[in-house]
Amino acid sequence: QITLKESGPALVKPSETLTLSCFFSGFSLNSDAAAVGWIRQPPGKALEWVGFIFWDGNTRYLSSLKNRITITKGDSKNEILLTMTDVDPADTGTYFCIHRQGGDFYDDRGNYHVGIYYFDFWGQGTLVTVSS
Amino acid sequence: EIHLTQSPSSLSASIGDTVTISCRSSQNIFISLNWYQQKSGQAPKLLIYAASRLQTDFPSRFRGSGSGTDFVLIIDNFQPEDVATYFCQQSFTFWTFGQGTKVDVK
Question: How far apart are the first and last CA of chain B?
Answer without folding.
Answer: 36
